[in-house]
């Protein structure tokens, strides 16, 4: 993942580009809630330098300086306006847009993200009876439509996929016809052809669970945590260890396949080629199997219905309790191994924990080593909900853009006039 600038500045022009990227990154990370004065202090800039940089970024339609944070409480706005007024750099209405895709084996969702993290979900489509390749073609067609909608504002496309990724390709996907498919190249070619336009930025691909954790570290419950473990449960289970807010992705970029560890004591064969995998007991498949249901349509939707019905349906209640116990035992084992400060939960993991917190926590504590039980890492459900993986995918795009090189390629889009 690209995260910071490409080296130290050595000339005045490079220093200016470096500071422009730093300032825009700070606006992005702060979600457009920091005043110019706060940004100046945070980046240790001279006030005059900050004023010049803000003016240039605004002139290039990258930011717009607002009188106060749009979402700040009234008392905060009043406090900030005492003394010399200071504006709040935020997303420009004609500024950069990252398109993000949450690709699952049975559906996909597409959203657009502005600089400060504001998002709009644009499309959601079930795969139905079509093939995985056909669904990728559908994704490309929807991306082409959105490229035409946003035009030159599009700076790239981020795609979260349900598979370990190597060089942009899915190396062990949930659908056989996705095996070794280079999603980045596939979507870049088809979407560009359909839009009949030049490429609008890179197509960047990452594992969905890793990106869900990245999103929580940037904009959710794991923000500011030095060492965190994040678990994302969908059809299967994945996750990531985050150190200083950055994913620890391993030697080949495919760390965090926690769902394929024997953490719950099962012995059944798994689609991955192993046996006794945790996701067979604690993922959506495990919940549906425990409830005696088949796997027709969107498994996450079905699993969510089982959880909702658990209050009145004894069969669903038993299935929820079984999965909650398996989830807690697995979390305890991972905490013993990884030693995080806190554990973030998203997707079905958050839903199961919120529906059966006592069952999850009892199994979690029982699986911990004795010395950890006095201060067990807190279990924190996601604050981003269904936007988690999409947010993480958008962060891939902004990480590539918020550099001197990325900003150097930005051309302010022409405004349409009546």
Contiguous low-pLDDT stretches (5 residues minimum) are 71-81
Question: Mind describing the biggest β-sheet?
Answer: 5 strands, mixed
Classify the beta-strand content into a percent band.
15-25%
Number of H- or I-type helical stretches: 15
Helix percent band: 40-55%
Give the ordered list of helices and strands: HHHEHEEEEHEEEHEHEEEHHHHEHHEHH
Q: Report the count of strand segments.
A: 14
The whole-number mean of residue pLDDT values reads 89
Main β-sheet, spatial strand arrangement = 5-4-3-6-9
What best-fitting shape do the alpha-carbon axes yield? globular
Overall description:
Helix content is 42%, strand content 18%. By secondary structure, the protein is of the alpha/beta class. The strands form four sheets. Strands 5-4-3-6-9 form a five-stranded mixed sheet, sandwiched between helices. The protein has a five-stranded mixed sheet with strand order 12-11-10-13-14, with helices on both faces. Strands 1-2 form a two-stranded antiparallel sheet. Mean pLDDT is 89; it is low at 71-81. It is built from 15 helices and 14 strands. The two termini are 41 Å apart.
Task: Fill in the keyword field for this structure.
globular, 5-stranded mixed sheet, alpha/beta, 418 residues
The gist of it:
This protein is α/β, with parallel strands linked by helices and 418 residues long. The chain has 15 helices and 14 strands.
Secondary structure elements and pairings:
Layout: H1 12-29, H2 36-42, H3 47-59, E1 63-66, H4 74-80, E2 88-91, E3 97-103, E4 107-114, E5 119-126, H5 132-150, E6 154-161, E7 165-166, E8 169-170, H6 183-195, E9 203-207, H7 208-219, E10 227-233, E11 237-243, E12 246-248, H8 279-282, H9 284-290, H10 299-309, H11 314-338, E13 342-347, H12 348-355, H13 357-367, E14 378-381, H14 388-401, H15 404-408
Parallel strand pairs: 3-6, 6-9, 10-13, 13-14
Antiparallel strand pairs: 1-2, 3-4, 4-5, 7-8, 10-11, 11-12
Helix pairs in contact: 1-3, 2-3, 5-6, 7-14, 9-10, 9-11, 10-12, 11-12, 11-13, 12-13
